[in-house]
Write a structure and sequence with these properties.
Its cofactor is Mg(2+). By secondary structure, the protein is an alpha/beta fold. It folds into 2 domains: about 5-20 and about 90-219, 3-Layer(aba) Sandwich (Rossmann fold), CATH 3.40.50.1000; about 20-85, DNA polymerase, domain 1 (Orthogonal Bundle). The chain has 9 helices and 8 strands. It has helices at about 20-35, 40-45, 50-60, 70-80, 95-105, 115-125, 150-160, 175-180, 210-219, and strands at about 5-10, 15-20, 90, 110, 135, 165-170, 185-190, 205. The strands form 2 sheets. It has a 6-stranded parallel β-sheet, sandwiched between helices. The protein has a two-stranded antiparallel ribbon with strand order 2-3. Helix 8 links the parallel strand 6 and strand 7 (about 185-190). Helix 1 (about 20-35) packs across helix 4 and helix 7 crosses helix 8. It is globular and about 55 Å long.
Length: about 220
């Protein structure tokens, strides 16, 4: 991977932030609405990353049930989640310092997430991260979600950056497949929410510390 890049594109959940506590609370409130017992954070972690609809569907499937009509249940989940999406959610250690460093080095920063756009903007603002990003593309901003490369291509188009000038940073197979499909090199964090061991995802590089991205991306 060419180490020095012009733009860095970040996934959100499990990459920039540890959002699992608030996601767990909202999912369990949604399950309780339907008379179902709660799930643990360990059960919910591998359900994260494919969008809110899939998260809700997987939560019901964990109880051996098909989800009720997805749209009404999704709205229940969002009602529980969006007003409280940053109650317990925090950036991973080293995130703010690393983003400051990369921006000071002249990189353009962006977010590409399957998370609903409204919740994404609210979380970034609440955590004081929103000012770092020139472009934020959420799960309802484009017709295709990761692992479809169209999601990353939409970010590149808005940034005005060629794929060879960018790098994707994520934590899951969706991030790797989307980046590979868009011909963008990809770095995976070893401490996110991946359902697959990080070193088996096929990333160009796996890092164990967010601060390592300073050296990897900006030299």
């Amino acid at each position: 991977m060419n180490r020095v890049k012009r733009a860095a594109i970040f996934d959100l959940d499990g990459t920039l932030i540890d959002s699992l506590p608030d996601l767990t609370t909202a999912i369990n409130k949604t399950l309780a609405d339907h008379g179902l017992p709660p799930l643990t954070t360990a059960q919910i972690a591998p359900m994260v990353g494919d969008g809110a609809s899939t998260l809700v569907t997987r939560a019901f499937a964990a109880h051996g049930l098909a989800a009720p009509p997805v749209e009404p249940v999704l709205q229940q989940f969002l009602t529980h989640y969006e007003p409280h999406a940053a109650d317990q959610t925090k950036p991973w250690p080293g995130v703010i310092e690393t983003l400051e460093y990369l921006r000071a080095k002249g990189l353009i920063l962006a977010v590409c997430t399957n998370k609903p756009t409204k919740a994404t903007h609210e979380i970034l603002a609440a955590l004081g991260l929103d000012h770092f990003f020139a472009v934020v593309v959420g799960g309802d901003d484009t017709p295709a979600l990761k692992p479809n490369p169209a999601h990353i291509n939409a970010v590149l188009d808005r940034l005005g950056v060629h794929h060879e000038e960018a790098v994707m940073i994520g934590d899951s197979i969706n991030d790797v497949l989307a980046a590979k499909g868009a011909n963008v090199p990809v770095v995976v964090l070893s401490f996110g929410y991946s359902r697959v061991p990080p070193h088996e995802l096929g990333a160009d590089l796996v890092v164990d510390d967010f601060a390592m991205l300073k050296r990897v991306i900006a030299g």
